[in-house]
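Task: sequence in, structure out. Protein: Holliday junction branch migration complex subunit RuvB.
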Amino acid sequence: MSDMEKTEFRLPEGIPAGGRGPESSVDATQQVADRDMEVNLRPKSLDEFIGQPKVRNQLDLVLSGARKRNVTPDHVLLSGPPGLGKTTMAMIIAQEMGSSLRMTSGPALERAGDLAAMLSNLMEGDVLFIDEIHRIARPAEEMLYMAMEDFRIDVIVGKGPGATSIPLEIAPFTLVGATTRSGMLTGPLRDRFGFTAQMEFYDTADLTRVVVRAARILGVGIDDDAAAEIASRSRGTPRIANRLLRRVRDYAEVHGDGHVTLAAAQAALVVFDVDEMGLDRLDRAVLSALIHGHGGGPVGVSTLAIAVGEEPSTVEEVCEPYLVRAGMVARTGRGRVATALAWQHLGLTPPPDAPGQHAV
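Result:
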């Protein structure tokens, strides 16, 4: 048996399909086990999904049109940074269409046979979700072309001159691909998706709604200003907002009555090394190495990684994207440079030649 994951998505007991109606209301006093946390915090329908209004409206048209024609929806490609809801959106697509969801990931599809085994087990209308689809092996990707277009695959039996190609019909399905690096997708694969959506970072207002909704599901009382404080430090990412809420809940239960106030939220985030800009210990270590160790740069990623004791890939993929988006680090041809905002964030006076000095 291959090592790929096959998961059929089903709603928790007591919640009807689509998540609509009075039966789907959440009891604020019910405590949710941590092992079921992610499943219970995920929205179950497009109406419940917070943020991404453009993607939601476009996807609603795609799914509504498919339901009216009684056909499987076009294949869907979801791209964007981690934690914005791509997996949740795939679950919602299956739920809205009343079908099963099969889940796997690109790295798990190392051979064409792995993909053939999964495709041959699909039922009509099923949704196949492939996370990190840009990392799928080339032989499996080439098999996927025919499956997406013609709902057919060719299975090779035997080796050498005696090998025989056997065509195998597969049930019509909808492929939902998710990628954090859309630029790494090959042209032929990208062109076979009927609908492509780019997930954007959330603003503080939408993230506050995410925090309030999650607190209600977790049975945590929270003040509006405390929810806004957590949202403002969540890097525009719902996954981070939910994680910070759980840690603030722990602090409020240990050091108080469990109700999350603004003071409790701020004190908890100090304990967990998340500052007012959403930077954690590693982010500040990178800025400190860049400014204190190299005068603000320019300096290469490998040098920064050695200074903070991390792998270059960690600095480049985990820290740098947010630091660049927050306007604290600038990427140049000679290396990374600390902006005036980075100097000020560390309580220092930026030099005259620091990027963004005049803007600040």
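The chain has three domains: 23-198, 204-271, 281-345.
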